[in-house]
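Hypothesis: this fold can be encoded by more than one sequence.
Test: take the structure tokens below, design a sequence, compare later.
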């Protein structure tokens, strides 16, 4: 049964909702939040620099905290920092008053997120943090607020307007705080010289981790699993080796196991177009691909994928520095490793 194509909604459906008004509302939100983000550009200043320096010099971890929607943003900021080279975690300010303050050591820097700057749960724990000597970075929308005044560094994330037409639901304000958090994380990432390999080490289970950490040596066939024949072998011997090893090709090597070429399914088909072709009498050296594309075992698996794609090939011989054939892999090995 063929799938039915769903028609686009009419300008007004049975519920009376106007498509035009819904589209207008959605676009208006994007416009308001875009303006809020644009207003942040001028506030990437010496206060921002001071916050980055406090976090960079932190001997412990960066502790992010906030209530409600600001808490969700603080949790995201902590997660972004932690995955980009700045150890960080989130503490709920309400739970902090009931024992979780013990998670914060005197070596930690605290980021407190509150649009009003008057969040009771944050102000309650502030004296303990100050007594313990924790540097405090406040991220608020009210530079004159209590939290802003008592902080070591204040980052102004105030917005011209909330995207909510009632001016009640945190919308633009949470977006601005989130963007400021991302700005801090990326600035620190670059200051630390954090690399893609560093990122992959904190994401080993993800597809990015696999792409950045998996090397050719981790997935290649080696030893007796490598298809190889001598240059003097007949095509029938080469075809048998391809069938046995099931990689769609065989390496062609000299007496010292140095690679001199490859023989593939494609080479076989092209050879069969020759009227003088003889499966048993023709030697593989006469029809093999010379100077084939190769790769070394220390390269990333993703580099093999790029090489195969750019040259439209499906298998590679792995060689060492002296061009000995030490391994082989094909596109199916990359698929099984979820590199592609």
């Amino acid at each position: 049964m063929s799938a039915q194509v769903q028609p686009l909604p009419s300008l007004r459906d049975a519920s009376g909702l106007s498509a035009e008004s819904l589209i207008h509302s959605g676009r208006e939100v994007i416009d308001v939040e875009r303006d809020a983000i644009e207003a942040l550009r001028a506030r990437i200043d010496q206060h921002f620099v001071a916050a980055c320096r406090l976090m960079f010099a932190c001997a412990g971890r960066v502790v992010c905290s906030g209530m409600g929607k600001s808490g969700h943003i603080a949790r995201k900021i902590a997660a972004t920092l932690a995955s980009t080279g700045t150890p960080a975690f989130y503490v709920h300010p309400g739970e902090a008053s009931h024992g979780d303050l013990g998670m914060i050591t005197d070596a930690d820097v605290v980021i407190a997120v509150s649009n009003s700057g008057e969040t009771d749960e944050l102000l309650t724990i502030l004296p303990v943090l100050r007594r313990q000597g924790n540097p405090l970075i406040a991220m608020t929308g009210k530079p004159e607020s209590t939290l802003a005044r008592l902080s070591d560094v204040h980052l102004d994330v105030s917005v011209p307007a909330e995207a909510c037409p009632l001016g009640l639901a945190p919308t633009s304000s949470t977006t601005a705080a989130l963007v400021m958090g991302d700005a801090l994380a990326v600035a620190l990432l670059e200051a630390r010289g954090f690399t893609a390999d560093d990122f992959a080490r904190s994401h080993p289970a993800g597809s990015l981790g696999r792409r950045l950490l998996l090397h050719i040596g981790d997935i290649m066939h080696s030893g007796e699993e490598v298809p190889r024949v001598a240059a003097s072998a007949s095509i029938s011997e080469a075809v048998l080796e391809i069938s046995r090893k099931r990689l769609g090709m065989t390496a062609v090597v000299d007496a010292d196991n140095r690679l001199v070429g490859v023989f593939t399914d494609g080479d076989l088909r092209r050879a069969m177009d020759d009227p003088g072709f003889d499966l048993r009498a023709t030697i593989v050296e006469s029809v093999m691909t010379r100077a084939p594309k190769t790769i070394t075992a220390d390269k990333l698996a993703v580099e093999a994928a790029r090489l195969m794609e750019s040259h439209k090939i499906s298998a590679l011989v792995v060689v060492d520095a002296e061009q000995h054939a030490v391994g082989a892999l094909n596109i199916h090995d990359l698929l099984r490793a979820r590199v592609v």
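The two ends are 32 Å apart (CA to CA). The chain has a mean pLDDT of 89.
Hypothesis status: open.
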